[in-house]
């Protein structure tokens, strides 16, 4: 409507309209016609006096022509249709090329190999990790020791190529006192990748709360991924995310586990997170250790976070060969899709963590209901209860797309 009024004010009269173009005649010069595409986005208001051409933005579909007869006018309409069809074909071709380029880009990404960028293993393992020796954020009856103390007390050592992270199992305590243990985190932080941990054994027993996880700065704003975690003699593993407000679990995704909760937002008052519970008894505790341990692998990319557990006898050959290919692995045990949680927003600068704490917010609160004897504080006081409170780690490897 605006274009018609603009042209009318400059001495043009509309003669005809088809589905896409309007035809105007110059009232003062009837031999001059103007062909205007109805969808033109914007117009300038100036007219070149000598020619009568209306100036338009670059690439606007306008043309002037001098027609002595109605026949030529009809021919121009036919020409216009041909030009429109040709323009449409050119547009379709450009779109096809664009789609092809996008498909090619995706195919190239799918074909890329995962390149190992970090490997924590054997006597070099601990050089890449810091020892946490502050108060336990989960309020456990634990005293996290520094690197020197851990090595002096043999709480962090290497035996037969395996890294051992243990709790003190020799000191008799008074009920309510804190037991020495270890919490370590990688010096490096990560913003995605493929992470593979080959673990031969994990801590088990009443009152014990072990975890292999990752966490960002300023919890929960940097995000937390709990890869292997549980309490007491729990029978299967729990996979959990903790985030700032706005992240949730899409329980329609396909996994081999069952959903426990869908709200990932966490705080000091409500630290449940969104979680899955594995159904494989070999995924945690006594069942995990009885199977010779296994591999926990998690993939963190723009599509979300996926976690796999492979029992020792079921580790894929590509992992054994150091050439992991998640696209060939079976359905993950846990999956947190980006469709309901933008991982780029809620997760950043995560360090990998191993720790073993006792009682505290989770293990302490569930001690009696787990069927454990006495009180949790009494349990912690007796060193005999911690002979199996050990991590035995073969390696942790980090991969990025090459």
Automatic annotation (TrEMBL):
Region (Disordered): 89-112
Pfam families found in the cross-reference section: GH16_XgeA
InterPro entries: Beta-glucanase-like, ConA-like_dom_sf, Glycosyl_Hydrlase_16
Domain GH16: 100-402
GO biological-process terms attached to the record: glucan catabolic process
Keywords from the UniProt entry: Glycosidase, Hydrolase
Similarity annotation: Belongs to the glycosyl hydrolase 16 family.
UniProt GO molecular function: hydrolase activity, hydrolyzing O-glycosyl compounds
Name under which the protein is recorded: Glycoside hydrolase family 16 protein
